[in-house]
Amino acid sequence: MAGAIDARLEEMGIELPEPAVPVANYVAYVVTGNLIFVSGQVPVVGGEFKYVGKVGGELSVEDGQAAARLCGINIIAQVKQALGGDLDRVTRVVKLGGFVNSTPDFTGQPQVINGVSDLIGEVFGDKGKHARAAVSAGSLPVGVAVEVDAVVEFA
């Protein structure tokens, strides 16, 4: 039987992917105490990197928001795996760290990272209200537009 969060994802038309396997010397997440630290997730779907380029250059704010949303879907997939499939155990999304591959003059990083913040709020409701950072990066792995990491509390 699917839990409330799984039902919400289904209502939203979101199917979680298989969590991505790290491609370097790190793990996808670490569970310590009642916290899950999710490594940076990028906009990848089915092994294909999406939204490659710089926001404020060849990519728009809307492209960046869509990339951030994909990062959020991948974060949720990692959390689900960490919790043995039970997303209803999430008690709080504590913090998101958003990195935007942007041109030097671009200043809309907060608007870009709203793509993931909005998703987390829609999925988790009040439990999704989080602290966050939204910063510019000169480049990101394989040139993707956005990378987001997370800290999530669970029971």
Report on the structure:
It is a single chain. The protein has 155 residues and is of the alpha+beta class. The chain has a single domain, classed as RutC-like (60s Ribosomal Protein L30, Chain: A, 2-Layer Sandwich). The chain has 3 helices and 7 strands. The protein has helices at residues 4-11, 61-82, 109-124, and strands at residues 29-32, 35-41, 44-45, 48-49, 90-101, 131-137, 146-154. It has a 5-stranded mixed sheet. The radius of gyration is 15 Å and the shape is globular. The two termini are 19 Å apart.
Number of domain units: 1
What kind of sheet is the major sheet?
5 strands, mixed
| Beta-strand proportion | 25-35%
CATH homologous superfamily annotation: RutC-like
**CA gyration radius, whole angstroms:** 15 Å
